[in-house]
Write a structure and sequence with these properties.
The protein is α+β, with helices and mostly antiparallel strands. It has two domains: 30 residues; 127 residues, Sandwich (Immunoglobulin-like). It is 17% helix and 42% strand. The protein has a four-stranded antiparallel sheet with strand order 2-9-4-7. The protein has a four-stranded antiparallel sheet with strand order 8-3-11-12, with no helix packed on it. The protein has a three-stranded mixed sheet with strand order 1-13-10, with no helix packed on it. It is globular.
Length: 173
């Protein structure tokens, strides 16, 4: 009985060490040329039919190297998923930011899947997300995370510092 307890404790310790290494390795990926998180923002997007555009997330590459997107994910997601993530040229720019492209815009016709997309050195692109909720409940996510690497192979992380709430109705009120 004592031997079984010792084996169980060793097994739990091994699981804790492996989990710690996995979590620590991701948290040590540095912020890179796409920037650090800005001021915390919260967005509420009302939807009917379970699908919403998140608008655009500008990816501003001020570096001298091309950047390749490895993954786009929602952090702390509850009943919310990314249906598609695309990179488009910046097309509709206003004084307060970019406007999501519509299927009629030239930028929409030039969209490519975000995973594997290259943001050339000294150029900007928009990350456009289509989000969905799986049922009639609201969906939420704590943040948006983009993992990417430079042309030299170094890995980076971009956090939008944006909490999302998708409301299954016609209004956020």
């Amino acid at each position: 009985m004592v031997r079984r307890a010792s084996i169980a404790i060793l097994l739990l310790a091994a699981i804790a060490v492996v989990t710690g290494v996995i979590l620590r390795s991701r948290s040590h990926v540095p912020f890179g040329p796409l920037g650090r998180p800005g001021t915390r923002q919260r967005y509420c997007i009302p939807v009917e039919g379970g699908i919403a555009f998140d608008g655009t997330n500008p990816m501003q590459n001020a570096s001298g190297e091309d950047l390749t997107i490895d993954s786009v994910s929602l952090v702390g997601s509850n009943n919310l998923r990314i249906q598609s993530a695309s990179i488009t040229p910046i097309f509709n720019h206003t004084l307060i930011g970019t406007v999501p492209p519509t299927p009629e815009d030239p930028a929409w016709r030039e969209r490519i899947p975000a995973r594997g997309a290259v943001i050339p050195a000294k150029q900007d692109r928009d990350l456009v997300l289509v989000l969905s909720i799986s049922d009639s409940r609201n969906g939420e996510a704590d943040d948006l995370e983009v993992l990417y690497h430079g042309s030299g192979g170094r890995a980076y992380v971009f956090r939008a510092n944006t909490a999302l709430r998708i409301v299954a109705s016609s209004s956020c009120l």
